[in-house]
Amino acid sequence: MNPVVHFEMPYDDAGRMQKFYQAAFGWRMQMLGQEMGNYVVAKTGPTTADGWPTEVGRINGGFFARTAAMPDQYPSVVISVDDIKAGMDAVRRAGGQILGDPMDIPGVGAYVSIRDSEGNRVGMLEPLPMPKKAKAKPKAKKPAAAKKKARAPAKKKKPARHW
């Protein structure tokens, strides 16, 4: 299954939109600037230093400037796929429509908008691979006499990657 990993909504006034969502819901907003189409990332909860949600099941979102050049500018969700081209083919076979060409979002992945069988605009994202963490060096072994029977610590679940 392909999960919903992000939401998007259009805005007419970036400042007004940011003030509203910060005041009403406590979201942290980050304007990406003109080189990224004045996209605004909305962080809806605790995140890592690089902006990924730390709570399982939580997603962040974003706001884009409303423009006459883009179709179907309504709130929508973004669905993660393993392969953007295969995802586009599956959408067509299922009766959906691809809205434009896939675009590369630096540091995020390949993105394309689609229209589903009910006329809803939905985003589709092939995320870039997560950077691998450096492996920790093994600890020095204790002499046999000093070893104590220890229980293995519980494994922590890694948070799902959300845009």
Brief overview, please?
The protein is α+β, with helices and mostly antiparallel strands and 163 residues long. The protein is built from two helices and eight strands. It starts with a strand and ends in a 36-residue tail after the last strand.
Describe the protein's architecture and organization.
The chain is an alpha+beta fold. It has a single domain, classed as Roll (2,3-Dihydroxybiphenyl 1,2-Dioxygenase, domain 1). The protein contains two helices and eight strands. An eight-stranded mixed beta sheet has the order 2-3-4-1-5-8-7-6, with helices on one face. The radius of gyration is 21 Å and the shape is globular.
Largest sheet: 8 strands, mixed
The CATH topology comes to 2,3-Dihydroxybiphenyl 1,2-Dioxygenase, domain 1
Number of strands: 8
* Category by helix and strand content: alpha+beta
Q: What labels describe this entry?
A:
single chain; 163 residues; alpha+beta; 2,3-Dihydroxybiphenyl 1,2-Dioxygenase, domain 1; 8-stranded mixed β-sheet; 31% strand
